[in-house]
Amino acid sequence: MSGDPEVIVIGAGPNGLVAACVLARAGLDVLVVEAHPTRPGGALASEEATEPGFVHDVGAAFFPFAQISPAFRDLKLGDHGLRWTFAPIDSAHPAPDGTVAVLARDIERIRDNFGSPEDGAKMLEVANWHRKVEPHLLPAMLETFPAIRPALGLLPFALLRVAATFMRSGARLSQSWFRSEAARRVIPGLALHTDVGPDDTFGSGIGYMLAVMATTGGYGVPEGGAGAITDALVRLLESHGGRVRVGARVDSIVVRDKRAQAVVLAGGEELRATKAIVSDTSAPALLGRLVDEKLLPGRVVRKMRSFAQGWGTFKVDWALDGPVPWATELSREAAVVHAGDSLADLRSFTAQARGGELPTNPYLVIGQQSLSDPTRAPEGKHALWAYSRVPALPPGGDWKAVEERFGDAIDERIEGLAPGFKARIRARRVVSPSALEAMDANLVGGDLGGGSNAWYRQLVFRPIFPYFRYRTPVRGLYLGSSYAHPGAGVHGMCGYNAARIALRDLR
User: Fold this and answer.
1) How far is CA 111 from CA 106, 117, 326, 340, in A?
2) pLDDT at position 65, please?
3) Exposure string over 237-274, b if 16+ CB within 10 A, otherwise e
């Protein structure tokens, strides 16, 4: 197509690309503009970050939503080259005392490996129940709020059970369900993928969903790296006539006659959109920087100035001479290993991260992608990926001064669970929160979750009432990033929902 595009999408992260694919598939001429100078994808990318031949994921590395996201199912990315790999165990939760609890798509493995036979039986019962309700529950949670039609598929008893589960803190839910410490640390530990601590009000939902999705969709690893998801989305977009332009940083959005009309790139070039603009950016960047504050309600401007971000993220990549020598055999089969020793340990970690301290015993999410995808490392070698949650800035305010030391603390943490680990390290790269933000402006202060995931930042409050259905105060301008409902996670639903709302408005 030639001339002005009908829709411009700002940002080629997963939500931006999903939105672009939906709009292009509907017959619209779509242009995606991406700030990165060489590639689309934002943090959804892969690179040889340590040594040649070792492929490391830049941001997200394993994908519990990938098999069950309504957006990904609808777009059929497998038809565009995306291939998934899976480890025998999806998530392992070891501790220095030698105990371990595991989650797997083969749910029978949970029965004998979840702290105790009684706790295994309870988790098995929960997983089996969830499988029955998931086809209705996930759309109800992920589609444009309020998603009434999928919610109607849940029987009243199921709705009550979901509500009773989600209304508790992660610690209270685990203590009511399980008796062993190994089982009790699983759900609160999974919630720490975001900024939700063990004792937070209504904090159990995130941990619960990540636990049960490990038994349904599983923690899939894309063959070749996380960038394979981006590549498939770009191929799908191009098959419908859409296109991506990299090295195109948007400096502002032009609003004329109270409607979004164009974007202005760094350097001054103006690109006109004849029908709509969808933004895969942070909410504060869109409402107050890209759009002139003078064009927005004062309440929105004030909210964006004080917008609550989630915790920072400190990431490490390793090139290893062999697999991690975990003390617990089950951890050697796991796509993801979570290092959180107990409820007390998770509480201490949460208090330190919220108090602005560097955690002394870091909680870790550790990705072993090369176990199921041997393309990630040379033969006989392995690539390893991990992150911890930290303050956006360390004590003293300078990550450069402390990042290697905190990387050493993470090495020691893994060594305590896998004696001999440090001897297998060939190379290491540490990535601080400030480096993550420099790589992708959406990761403000290293926040992976699109703002805080506290309960009062969800649903009608995400990002701000009444603009929770992807529309903004400016006509023709939509927010389709993780700063909109349903928030964090590589599921594409924020962009998918925003695109469907834009299509509804255009019709």
Assistant:
1) 10, 6, 21, 21
2) 86
3) beebebbbebebbbeebbbeeeebbbbebeeeeebebe
**Amino acid found at 152:** L
Q: At residue 400, what are phi and psi to the nearest 5 degrees?
A: -55, -35
- Which portions of the chain are predicted below pLDDT 50? 1
Query: What does the pLDDT look like over 133-184, one tens digit per residue?
Result: 999 999 999 999 888 888 878 878 888 999 899 999 999 999 999 999 999 9
CA distances from 268 to 249, 251, 263, 441 (A): 10, 8, 10, 20
CB-CB contact of 326 with 416 (8 Å): no
Task: Note the pLDDT tens digit of each residue in 280-314.
Answer: 999 999 998 999 999 999 999 999 999 999 999 99
Q: What is the pLDDT of residue 456?
A: 83
Dist. CA 137–CA 439, nearest whole Å: 35
Q: What fold does the segment set 84-222+311-439 form as a domain?
A: Polyamine Oxidase; Chain A, domain 2 (3.90.660)
Q: Using CA atoms, how far apart are residues 89 and 66, in angstroms rounded to an integer?
A: 17
Architecture of domain 7-44+226-307+452-506: 3-Layer(bba) Sandwich (3.50)
Dihedral over Cα of 462, 464, 469, 475: its sign: negative
Q: What is the tens place of the pLDDT at every residue in 94-107?
A: 999 999 999 999 99
Q: How far apart are CA 412 and CA 397, in angstroms?
A: 24
For the chain, where do the domains classified as CATH 3.90.660 start and end? 84-222+311-439
Q: Taking Cα atoms as reference points, which of 149, 145, 199, 135 lies closest to residue 171?
A: 199
State how far the Cα of 461 lies from the Cα of 449, in Å rounded to an integer. Answer: 15
Q: For residue 249, give the H/E element and its range.
A: none
